[in-house]
Amino acid sequence: MLTRRLTRFAAALGFVSAAMMGTEVHAQGITTGGITGFVTDVSGAPLEGVQISITNATTGFTQRTISREGGRFTLTSLEVGGPYTLEARRIGYQPHTRTGITIQLSQSSRVDIRLEAQATQRA
């Protein structure tokens, strides 16, 4: 009976001690980077609805977005390094490809895209 009480007391004391000890937590911080920019036509007018994808040539990871009002696009949480290939497509415009992009740690690099009009065929 006394042994059981001592065991319970020791367990309770252990829990209280553990609760009173401060545990130090370290945040891992930012481990990625990104790209932001604008899509325009050759006259400089912003283009919305452009499909943009970026692919890491080393890992094959691909992320996609669509340009918003004013032609702005953002690709975040990209693994640092590369090389990356960026592709932009929209009906009525020639596809645009840019290779050799490197992502910097906790940086958002600016990459602007200019699309040229392309003749479309009617079926």
Please tell me about this protein's structure.
The protein is of the alpha/beta class. The radius of gyration is 27 Å and the shape is elongated. The protein is built from 1 helix and 8 strands. It has a domain at 32-115: Sandwich (Immunoglobulin-like), CATH 2.60.40. The protein has one helix at 2-20, and strands at residues 32-41, 51-56, 62-66, 72-79, 81-89, 96-103, 108-110, 113-115. The termini are far apart. The longest helix is centred in the N-terminal third of the chain and has 19 residues, at 2-20.
Distance between the termini: 93 Å
List the total number of helices.
1
The percent range for strand residues is 35-45%
Please name the CATH architecture of the domain at 32-115. Sandwich
Specify the CATH homologous superfamily of the domain at 32-115.
Carboxypeptidase-like, regulatory domain
* Helix amount: 10-25%
Order of helix and strand elements from N to C terminus: HEEEEEEEE
> What is the mean predicted local confidence, pLDDT?
84
Give the uncertain stretches in residue-range form: 15-26
**Rg, nearest Å:** 27 Å
Biggest sheet layout: 4 strands, mixed
**Total beta strand runs:** 8
Pick out its properties.
single chain, 123 residues, Immunoglobulin-like, four-stranded mixed β-sheet, four-stranded antiparallel β-sheet, 1 helix
Q: Concise description?
A:
This protein has 123 residues and is an alpha/beta fold. The protein has one helix spanning 2-20, and strands spanning 32-41, 51-56, 62-66, 72-79, 81-89, 96-103, 108-110, 113-115. It has a domain at 32-115: Carboxypeptidase-like, regulatory domain (Immunoglobulin-like), CATH 2.60.40.1120.
